[in-house]
Amino acid sequence: MVERESELVGQGERLRAAESEPGQPRLYEREAAILAARQAIDTLCREFTAGGIELGSLLLYSGRAGLGKTSMLQQVRMLAGQQGGCTVLSARAGELRTKEPFYVLRQLLLPELLKLSPEEQREVFGPWREIAGPAVGLIAPSGEDLDPQSVRIGLEYLVTQLARLRAPLVMLVDDVHWADQESFGWLESFAERCPELPVLLAIAWRTDELPAETHAFRRLVATNSHRHLEFQGLLPAPIEKMVRAAFPDTAEDAFCRQVWAVTGGNPYLTQALLAKVRERGIEPIYENVPLLHDLAAEAQGMTRELWLQKLGVNTLNLAHAAAMLGTQISPRVAARIAGMAPGAAEEAISELRRHQVLTGPADGPLEFVHPLIATSLYRSIRPGMRTAMHGKAAVELENAGRPLVESSRHLLETHGENDPQVVAKLRQAAREHLAVGAPAAAVRCLERALNEPPEDEDRAQVIYELGCSTLLTDPVSTVNQLRLALETPGLRREQRVDATFRLSEVLAHSGRLVEATEVTLAEAARTEPGPGRVRLEVAHFMWAAFQREERDGPARSARLAAFSAELTGDDINARAARVLRAWDLTLQGADATEALALLDSALEDGRLPKGLGWTSTTWGLELPAIVGLTFVYTDHLDRAEKLFEEAIRAFELAGWVGGHLGFAYFLMGLVRFRRGALAEAEEFLRGALRIARRLGPGLPLQWDAVGVLADTLLARGRTEEAWKLAADYGFAPPYHPTAMVLPDAPTLYGKLLLAQGDREAAVTALETVGAQLDERGWHNTIWAPWVGNLAQALQPRDPLRAGELAAEGLRRARTFGVESAVGTALRTAAAVADGQSALELLTLAVRELGRSPVGYEHAFALVELGAALRRAGRLAEATEQLHQGMELEVECNADGLVARAREELKASGLRPNRLRTTGKEALSQAEWQVAEMTVQGNSALEIAEQLEMPLSLINRRLAAVHRKTGTNREGLAAALGLPGEEPRKP
């Protein structure tokens, strides 16, 4: 790919050298613009030399065609060259290159990138080489579809590093109104960041010709209005100077005034009109003033007949071929399009240069002297001939070794002729567009392929490819095209399965979970037995697991259990089914041991098997997320953290920095929240929320992030901020219409109400959600702790029912068998109990939570126990618990709990200790000792007996071990890297 682009680089170098030569047209009435440009360049160079970095500025030029914008950019180039030390990059969009993705960007960056050494290239690309490299033409695409948002971010990184390496940098972009969609989008984003870099960015465009959708660019111009100069027509005096320069001895005043009148002061049109006056041999006197109007019309837009009179047949044919190519014109390719021999083509090019139609070196690349000439020539081609010439141009560009992404723009302008080769080329071009992150260009190619049309047996496949091309950018179009592909005969069995799964995936990611479950179930019923059918059945169960509501939850769980039991092998579908079964058991609150055993059988040596990775196109991110969520809610937080770290790395390396990365941030925020690292959790969750806002409102990711972030703020003691966050994002009934929020949204909302002191509303909300979850068979007290929250809400007015609910919550937690669930349920039961009973429950809660990795819950229980002991007059014991709780609270950044612990300690007459660090490396020698003995299979009582220490001290050390390593007893060996034995019953 680099070899193919080297020709473009060399041609661009020669063209820019030609542009900087003397003899350029004089700029009349542009003194202020030239002065502003000179000052901007002087400031950039002076302050950069003085050590400045954030020096960037914009120069914005607009106006009608022919008013001198291009000449102004050439003037900026000349001023930068005179200054010395500047790196100048330039690009010019073309009217006929708007459908060639990244065309402008390649012109701008590739010449300079090819000058870099391999070490410098590695520096400017960083981790984004495989993402941004294909877009700029430096490396060949990998063949995998790239996320346009990722490509945009990669390009921003690339240009940022290039700007710093080659600073000070002057970037010129002409005729930006014709820029391809991909380059324009990048330019909008980069222009906003320009002030952060040592870059002067100068942009020119035609007034009223910007595409309608360029809202961000229009806002940018409005914001930088002091840098925006809109060129107007010249006054009569400069036009008179131009006329007298052309006719120094004979031009009369009346003739000069009429030239200004018929051209509107347009300098380019004035020069073209004066050229025609010379061609016709017309004297510039008063008697010939009536001729100027028609001559001006000819100069502005010549017809085919006028061009023919001016150039002759052969020369006009070559000019038309050049107009087909638009910019960066290869003389050899233009000659072949025109069907001319090399010698005749050379003569025609020489004639076009003499008539000031083309400019540039004889061996190319050639450029039109002005875009208006190219437009005039292109429009002078008869429509039928124009279409045929586009077809010829596509062929000749391909024969010349140019990539399909370049020749395909010509195929888009041809008529369908039932040509299978054209269909194949357009499909291949679409794949290449997707591989550089240009799905809009791929869509154009595939839509044109359908109009060819393709053979009957290929039509469904092309429709399917069209649906997949919009997967990351247009969910509605994707759904429509994939449905049509499935309805069209011709898809092979495996393609039908894949099309159905992709359809269900985009439906689910759009929040249409019910449709996703229905479409997979219906297609599974039509599919013959085999791996494809099993994949669809697994997908059906997967999407059902994420539905907000379900009519037959227990029945669906039973079907899933039977389905999973039937798949006894270790193929990817069987593993996926076991993952879903483990998650279903977790939501039911069944014995966690069974769920974890299923997960271990689904993984390979504790890692995701091939085919279930985060970036797998077979299954997507849902199944590995379910694995991690099961670990989260069974106290294996260390395994969940590792898994979610893998997700973040995988998405960043793949360039999936949109919803995928946002979901990974959410998952990491969730596990950090469970672990008690509240400040870190808040950071990850806010990152997820930022991405969710960028993607648009109402997506499940936004609900997920807001819910856990609000819970995190409550834990940190920022109740009002949590409530405001929920209100700002509408986190209240009816929630998302179809998708389940992670964790349970109604329970979180009831908790918010309870924190606000609105017990009546909290009771109503929690009773409603409790009935719904019980009907569904979901009794997990960590996922949805509605029972405990409802007990606390009811305690003041109905203590008997509150006690019954607390007891039910404890029963459910013990059935689940996870220490954090049991410990939290014990603490909740203590909150609705009195006296010695509450004290005993809190003692048990601290012991259970000390065996788990959930730092905040443990800290909460310690403070509650310390407070209860103080109220019972047992100050020495209270102080011990409060000190330990205080340390842990500070570690967790639980500011509200810290304040409460301080008050309790103050009431005891003591000061809090300093906190200690966390992590495996933070274990003290004494903690390592009890950790090793625990891994060897000893119980806490056995360790206490062997070390001849109090059991309470051993339990405190074990609690610190679990908290710092982020795992429970079963996961301790793996977390510490020690060989473990099965723990013995005490």
TrEMBL record:
The keyword Nucleotide-binding applies. Keywords: ATP-binding, Nucleotide-binding. Transmembrane segments: none annotated. SUPFAM superfamilies: C-terminal effector domain of the bipartite response regulators, P-loop containing nucleoside triphosphate hydrolases, TPR-like. Residues 1-19 have a biased composition (Basic and acidic residues). Residues 41-199 form the Orc1-like AAA ATPase domain. Residues 1-23 are annotated as: Disordered. This is AAA family ATPase. It comes from Kitasatospora nipponensis.
